[in-house]
Design goal:
- The protein is an alpha/beta fold.
- About 35% of the residues lie in helices and about 20% in strands.
- The strands form 3 sheets. The protein has an 8-stranded parallel beta barrel with strand order 1-2-5-6-7-8-9-15.
- Helix 11 runs parallel beside helix 12.
- The two termini are about 45 Å apart.
Length: about 400
């Protein structure tokens, strides 16, 4: 009898040791199967939940308690360093809506809850970017421009959205790095630690020779927003996911995972905010098959709100829903006037996978494009609350 009792006690003790050793390991998840060893399980809280709020979505904005920061998009930078105020005979819409009661109310609401608001300063088109960076007079004037904005509005940060398409030569990369360094020094000297500086980059910025020299840029900024979306666009010849987590053989070779692996080698991960789309794209397609060919110029943005409205008419539109196991994202097809349409989009389930990824890589948080696209739904925000703002559960993405 004593041997039996000792045997039971030994087995119980061994079981406790095994449970203790493996208690913190996640249950099976596609992330574990598909990702590389640079991912690590983390349960860090206090992630930044940063949301871009474009001027055209002000009327659709719904305040959510999970938000830590919002960034008003945007004021446009002119080549001479001034900020655009007029668009022909009319006021520039970004400048006009910044002065609106709607934005003032939103900013006051954020401030009353000790949340931060930021201003996005944007510059697109390669030639304009080159001309701006070529002129020290322009960059000096830009510093005066941001001082005027920060004097007029109680912003807590500046987000710089300079989007140069394609590869850039080293001279241009050095000019952009030098500009960011001077901007950081200007902010520190004038505002001490009261103003955050963040920059936006394409997902491939750490992997390809683009304008962002990541190794030399990150010491001068508080955060880097990795715009990890638009892997498929309105102009894509085949339908596909806007933000695939993993690549798919014989379909798409680029993915969030492949690009973030390179970022993680160059930037302290707590400085990285992963761009999360609250939208997808829809196209008229030749068939209802996944990744069907699209009709030229048929692509359009499909917000989460639009997809939910379509799903309310599931029978009428003959909607068929699907899930891509590589992208870890949903899609649907529908029929209208005897023509086929395909939408690849993001929902609470797909975003939860991305949030789990943020935890495993121990990123600083997320940056949402864009607030207002989700409508009144709480589904996505509940996923953010459960996954980022509380200790993640081991089966969070398997629901």
């Amino acid at each position: 009898m004593r041997k039996i009792i000792n045997g039971i006690l030994f087995i119980s003790f061994l079981s406790l040791i095994i449970i203790w050793l493996f208690a913190d390991l996640p249950l099976f998840s596609p992330l574990a199967e598909k990702s590389d060893s640079f991912l690590k399980r983390q349960n860090q809280v206090n992630k930044k939940i940063y949301g871009f709020l474009p001027f055209w979505n002000l009327d659709d904005f719904v305040f959510q308690e999970e938000l830590t920061d919002i960034a008003y998009f945007s004021l446009t930078i002119n080549e001479d360093g001034s900020l655009k105020t007029n668009d022909g005979e009319n006021l520039d819409p970004g400048f006009f809506r910044l002065q609106s009661d709607e934005f003032s109310n939103i900013q006051n609401q954020m401030l009353s809850k000790q949340k931060k608001t930021h201003i996005v300063l944007s510059l697109f088109e390669n030639k304009k970017i080159e001309n701006f960076l070529d002129s020290s007079e322009s960059t000096d004037k830009f510093f005066q421009s941001i001082d005027s904005v920060l004097l007029a509005y109680p912003f807590s940060g500046i987000n710089l959205d300079v989007e140069y398409t394609g590869e850039a030569n080293q001279e241009l990369r050095d000019k952009y790095t030098s500009f960011i360094k001077k901007l950081s020094q200007h902010i520190q000297a004038r505002y001490k630690n009261k103003i955050e500086l963040s920059i936006d980059t394409y997902a491939a910025a750490a992997s390809k020779k683009m304008i962002w020299d990541i190794n030399n840029l990150h010491p001068h900024v508080d955060y880097i927003v990795v715009m990890a979306y638009d892997f498929h666009r309105t102009s894509s010849t085949q339908s596909g996911p806007v933000a695939p987590l993993f690549k798919k053989e014989n379909s798409w070779k680029e993915s969030i995972h492949s690009y973030l692996a390179d970022f993680a080698k160059k930037v302290p991960t707590h400085k990285i905010l992963l761009g999360i789309p609250f939208y997808g794209y829809e196209w008229q397609t030749t068939t209802r098959e996944p990744e069907a060919f699209t009709f030229p110029k048929s692509g359009a943005t499909a917000s989460y709100k639009r997809v939910q409205e379509l799903l309310k008419n599931k029978e009428e539109l003959q909607i068929e829903e699907g899930w891509d196991e590589d992208a870890l994202a949903p899609y649907l097809t529908y029929v209208k006037d005897e023509e086929f349409f395909t939408i690849y989009y993001e929902n609470a389930k797909s975003i939860k996978y991305k949030l789990e990824y943020v935890n495993q890589l121990d990123l600083g948080g997320i940056a949402i494009w864009s607030l207002g696209y989700e409508g009144n739904s709480r589904e996505i925000w509940d996923a953010i609350q459960q996954t980022l703002l509380h200790e993640p559960t081991t089966n969070s993405t398997n629901q």
